[in-house]
Specification:
Layout lengths: L7 E7 L1 E2 L2 E7 L8 E2 L2 E3 L6 H13 L1 E15 L4 E14 L7 E8 L10 H9 L4
């Protein structure tokens, strides 16, 4: 019997403040040591917006309001099919700290973001953002 596999939905938060993009360094695999916007998997019964708010709080300690979808993409391998949805978000509270599976959380000048070791999809996301 063949096991049925379904895609996993992940969300991310694109938070830009004064020309800086909020990035987290992943502290666990997959992608340990790589940088990306805060985000993660959507839980069963959770709205996309609620998932963004939860993931940002868990990984950065910040409270956000979620705006429009700014990027979407997919990662398809023999092992996984991820559907990724990144939303604009605005910080409305909290204090920046790394938490959950984030080793570090930092405001990075948008013009310098590509100098970090990034997850594969981050390059596509950065291509859609306005230049500094």
């Amino acid at each position: 019997m063949t096991r049925r596999r379904t895609p996993v939905v992940g969300v991310g938060a694109v938070i830009i403040r004064d020309g800086d993009l909020l990035l987290i360094e992943r502290g666990k695999d997959p992608g340990r040591g790589l940088w990306a916007v805060p985000g993660g998997k959507v839980r069963w019964g959770e709205t996309l917006s609620d998932a963004v708010v939860r993931e940002v709080a868990e990984e950065t300690g910040l409270v956000v309001e979620v705006g429009d979808l700014v990027w979407h993409g997919e990662v398809i391998t023999d092992e996984v099919h991820l559907v990724l949805l990144d939303f604009e978000a605005t910080v409305v509270g909290g204090e920046l700290r790394a938490g959950d599976d984030a080793a570090r959380a930092e405001w990075v000048p948008l013009a310098e973001a590509r100098n970090r070791p990034l997850t594969g999809t981050m390059h596509d996301l950065l291509d859609t953002l306005p230049g500094p």
